[in-house]
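Instructor's aside before we start: the two examples that follow are unrelated to each other. I chose them only because their records fit on one page, so don't look for a connection. First example below.
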Amino acid sequence: MEMKTRFDWKAALNAGAVAGISALLICLVGMVASFGQRYIISGVLSIGHTLLLMNMILAGFIAVRRARYENRLFTLLSGALAGLVTSAMVAVVVLIGQYVNLRAVLINASTELYRLLTFGQNAFVGLAILLLIGAVLGLLTALVSLLPDYIRRAVVLAFAILLMFGLLRDLLRVMFEGWGPLGGLFLWMFPVAGGLSIPGVVFLLVVAAGISLLGSLLIGPKVCPSVKQWVGKQPRGGQLAVRLGVWALLAALALLAPRILGVYPSEVLNMVGLFALMGLGLNVVVGFCGLLDLGYVAFFAIGAYTVGVLTSPEISYSPHWPFWAALPVAMVAALLSGLILGIPVLNTRGDYLAIVTLGFGEITRLFFLSDWLRPYVGGAQGIQLIAPARIGGLLLTQPRELYYLILAGCLLVIFVSTRLKNSRLGRAWMAVREDEDVAQAMGIGLVNTKLLAFATGATFAGLSGALFATKLGSIYPHSFQLLYSIYVLCLLIVGGMGSIPGVLVGSLLLIGLPELLREFAEYRMLVYGAVLVFMMLTRPQGFLPAKPGTRRTGKEAEKSAP
């Protein structure tokens, strides 16, 4: 971006207006008042005030991002003006509310909201404080942007950790209690009532900033621009040792996660794993092959119901198989259903394909809901008493045990997806995704390629459905609505179409994060909107998009030719 020599006050005003609208929305939907008594820092800073102040920081960030100045004073002025505009928009609404009954139209424009926005002072003193805070926060945000990279990373990480600990206070307290003496070192940060203690805040800021600065000192910008480049400079044996060490660390964390985190976080990881399995399957159909499937939840339902019918004593025709005998049958049933769907839709594309697959998903749900088939699939009452997974004498019924079963399924599907992506079939899928006509002209058989994509994606969904059925022990038709197909498609978009790591990131953001924030009731669903808006503004290709294929030059092709 070209550096500006003159102060652009319009850019600062626009940034402040954008953040101001966001701040007003948060206030008037009731979030500030609802969380006004829930503290991040005990007796000092509530979540309601934090949500408001974050918008002033956002204003400074947008202002600095949109305008780059040669004169650093202009950068500081831009951030301060943007923060001031944000707080001024909130102050105007509060001022109007002193003379006009806004609550007749806006139900959340209450006296409690005005009290929080004026910090318990009279209107004019409180609004003056609000304006001052907005200008100062915008100024500080601009000042942080001017700091060296390694210091800026330390500051951002420190406050992000502080915010995370404050929001997840109750969950972290439960988790730390299971750590024995080591957990006692952390529990003192949380008083019995309220948020973090002041010593706890100082401890978190110092530790988080210290870790970031230490990392920058060891492998930071003065040594090399990135860790990847640092690894690349090592000898071949050193590079292998680093990679093996990283994989060993990740494997240890994955294996120890349920013991470290506790029961509820393990349950959240199980839900993330199930949606990741579905996402990896849909990634084959949509991300690799470019076939928009909105009825993908049907294959998930078929896998779950197959396990239910084959294992539950409630179904009179059930052979009462164990879970491990029913699992491959469920995957084969889902595979066949993928072929059955794929054959009639081979010649449809785009929106038409989406409509046909959507109809297939709804037909499948109504099929399981019908009274006509109730003796076979349970109808509206669903299927209960589904057999749990068993390894020897160990029943996998608790979240911590089920975690390892779902982890094994995810690792298997990730391995298969990676091998398929780098295979001849994977390249054929991606050619069809880019242009079907050109792919057909190059000799790729569209029929076989598309059918294999549908079958592979359906098989992965069937595996996820089977694990879902044995996890809950009961299934119902309303558990397989269209909305779940939309969830899976959203996590693909957020993570990055065609990216296997992106599926995992999307699952964590759109499934795991709202579950961890369940205590915030209906407002937690705003996480979806916030993450999607942030992604569209900053990462339109997804947080971890698939790397584009490299093309060889003519000379490179000649050298590699036989």
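Example two begins here.
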Amino acid sequence: MNPFGSSLRVLQIARVALRHRLDALLEGTRFARVLRLLKPFVPKARAGEAELPRGARLRLALQELGPLFVKFGQILSTRRDLLPPDLADELSLLQDQVAPFPGEEAAAIVAAELGAPVEQRYASFERTPLASASIAQVHAATLADGRAVVVKVLRPGVHAAVARDLALLRALARLAERVGPDPERIRPQEIVDEIERSLRHELDLQREGANASLLRRKWLGSADLYVPEVHWSHTSERVLTMERVSGIPSDDIAALDAAGIDRRKLAAKGVRVFYTQVFRDNFFHADAHAGNIWVDAERREDPRFIALDFGIMGTLPDVDRYYLAENFTAMFEQDYRRIAELHVEAGWMPASLRLDELEAAVRTVCEPYFTRPLSEIALGEVLFKLFRVARQFQLTIQPQLILLQKTLLNIEGLGRLLDPQIDIWSVARPVLAEILHEQRSPRQVAKLVRQRLPGWLAAAPDMPQLLHDYLKQAVGGQAELAMRSADLRRLADISHAGQRQTVFAILGAGLLVAATLLYALGAGGPSWLSIPLPAWIAALGGAWAFIAAWPR
């Protein structure tokens, strides 16, 4: 979108806000003053709309503005601990009660995607949708063998609508890079990249089917979470057919109580499922609002969740998952020094800052909360205040963590809705400890070594040539070592203190043996498959130490 198009979109947003009389919600802000200037040029509200409650007017405005704004409303609706009840109740309708598109149009899309009229592909297909959301709507159907299914159909024109708002976000990100504070740390373009990636994935229903299939496999037979089956013969990029399930929306407290569901046990299970998905599976449901998370009404004493809508699933790089797990553990143990160290080690904050100052700032935020009963501590509130403090210490925004942060707040909101007295910290702590203990067990380490051994062995024959090339460059004064990670920067500091050569010269002595061995292999020595694994590990470790110790 060009700048002119972005400006028109901004004006359109302001116009919709005024037409739905949302200026009262923004009273006292700069945006409210701008809206007042535009008010004379905006048509009056539709008949009767001006008398609607503010929540209903906000919901209608977000629906009119399109999928990206509906998503924003869905996220807000999950935080009943932060929103007034009237706004939360209305925004929750955005989860599955967005204005539908015609059923005949949905049937035409299904026929075009599956290559035959719906009457030939399904024994029955209901034109009236069961639910309608910002990206797609869902219709009840029956397969030829009698199995009940639901058919999810992508909205017509949704790609263009999403592209339009993403272009606006992209233009705003470029503006923020030019005139905003600290764009290197806030990284607006990368944040928009992450949002775009998530939305593009959500617009591909075949990908959503693959997500559901993987999640079902990981939780098959679980007493905590059920994932419906995907019918691949009736699925394409714009159509997804899945097993039809029944349940109670997880925010319908009256229905849950009427069904005799143990809400306290259910809330604790929700926290455990989230931490297990993140830290055991590294594959978590990242759109966990009540419209997508139901409760199995048939299991009263041992309730379980039913997951729906798998368009947005989250994964994390291993290094971020490690630092997150360590951060949570340190927070559970109130180890503020460790939290400060981890943020620097992860590269989320500059290595030049003073750890004692960061530690004191973290302690200042967290300590007042730990004087309360743990059930009264809102993790989202703590994280928000920590984030605000971290910005003062030049925190670098991590776009890859945005989905996790959003989901964490959703899960906390759901947990507190189901059980206002839930002690989220004490529920999460043993789950995380058990997962980390299992991942670091000798059996798991051995499994990891077995997985990576073929790659190590495949790379081993190249080591003599790489080593020869480096030594040749070093002798000619052409070798350079780029120090990029936080760990390597700290090693560089050690070298300035005069300790580096001593430390790494000792480690590098192992390189002599490794180099000799590798040279012999390259010259037609014994088969490299016969070399024991410890020798390869020593060679690789020795090479790293020798390079690190090489004088500048």
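Confidence is low (pLDDT under 50) at residues 494-552.
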